[in-house]
Every structure is written in C-alpha cells, then in structure tokens.
Please model this.
Amino acid sequence: MKKILYSRQEIEQIVVMHRLYLYNREQPCGAKAIRCLLDQQALRPLPSISTIQRILSQNGLTHARTGFYP
Model:
C-alpha cells in the first residue's frame, strides 16, 4: 500500500470536510472522533487532537455549529 503524505492545507481541508460529514449525519463530531476517523483512513501525517481542535476553532466549527454566525 502506497503512503500519501498530505500538506498542512490539505489536512486542514480534510478535517473540515470530516467535521461537516459527521455533523450532518448526527454523529459525534469532536476532535477525538475526527482523529479516530482519520486514523482509520490511514491519513498521514496524523494530526494531534489539539491540532484538530485548533483547525475547527479557526474555521468556526466548534460548539455544535457548522459555521460562523455573527
């Protein structure tokens, strides 16, 4: 199996997409759940839970929101 290494920007996009995917299916969508999903998909480099949480915060995807609401 060939390993694919992703850039930082690609990982951020993947984290956001997985967050929205889980949220829209009413599944747990926190940083731990996203990291578990990324690990199952063999994403490398695998971001830490704190990194995933930071990505979610920067994109306004925390506190059960799908986006930033002013």
